[in-house]
């Protein structure tokens, strides 16, 4: 399972004044990525986001772009040319820090066979004032004895955990420093060789998905983000109009709702729809924002979006169902109980 925030993170850091900040940053990134590639923890080319800030003025970015690297760039001569190309297009100023990061698609081993998982890892590298560090963060639970719902997964764990142990050891060798597990997260506890589950006081594995992930996912549909101009409100005190939204297979994904008195409209994903309901809801939020920017009222937005054609991610408002009314609190309770 893939939570919305990291399951575990490890770092490798050292003092290093052997090169400039950009070179140290990219060298660490490429060295680590080479290890991940060997173990199929990253498939595809190393495309990264590089940010370079000015010395003494960290809010001033001299360079902030996506870059595509090659493993051959790890050689000293090639890396020097890459750094020179970056400097040639960067804004003038003395470099203070460099930070590069990339999302990694990994090959995971499941009971059904191999599958590629997007954003299984976030790899980052940074250098500042002679201090260089590499971070690796995983977003999947396949390394643990129990999944994030607390369910045993012996086959998945035995297939993947040794792979992670090998990668952490190889990274320490490649980066020339020991593996440092970071603090426990809501979902797991990193160790020098892998990830441990979180446990209850009685020793049973915790359902951290239900405790942390579900509330976090629901919050985006119930609370406005910072700088929320252009959004409808996402809560209402009284009765709302709503329509059911179903996937192409007929599965109820959730309900699209609106309230003119509260200036609000949002999506209430159905708990039982899981990841499908969450992804669908994010699409409906984007659509609602677009209607708000065009000046539509919540009820007008609901009427317009109810006629949207079916979409493989968002699903479709049930064409057989006219908008009904219900207190929003009851509608959200229905989404939890369904």
Write the layout of secondary structure elements.
Blueprint: E1 8-15, H1 21-38, E2 47-54, E3 57-68, H2 76-89, E4 95-110, E5 113-128, E6 131-138, H3 154-175, E7 180-181, E8 189-191, E9 194-196, H4 208-222, E10 239-246, E11 252-259, E12 264-269, H5 274-293, H6 298-305, E13 316-317, E14 324-327, H7 328-337
Explained architecture:
The protein has helices at residues 21-38, 76-89, 154-175, 208-222, 274-293, 298-305, 328-337, and strands at residues 8-15, 47-54, 57-68, 95-110, 113-128, 131-138, 180-181, 189-191, 194-196, 239-246, 252-259, 264-269, 316-317, 324-327. The strands form 3 sheets. It has a 7-stranded antiparallel sheet with strand order 3-2-4-5-6-1-7, with helices on one face. Strand 4 and strand 5 (113-128) form a beta hairpin. 37% of the residues are buried. The model has no long low-confidence stretch (mean pLDDT 92). The radius of gyration is 24 Å and the shape is globular. The chain contains 7 helices and 14 strands. It starts with 7 loop residues before the first strand and ends with a helix. With 338 residues, the protein is an alpha+beta fold. Helix 5 (274-293) packs across helix 6 (298-305).
Report a brief summary of the structure:
With 338 residues, this protein is α+β, with helices and mostly antiparallel strands. It has helices spanning 21-38, 76-89, 154-175, 208-222, 274-293, 298-305, 328-337, and strands at residues 8-15, 47-54, 57-68, 95-110, 113-128, 131-138, 180-181, 189-191, 194-196, 239-246, 252-259, 264-269, 316-317, 324-327.
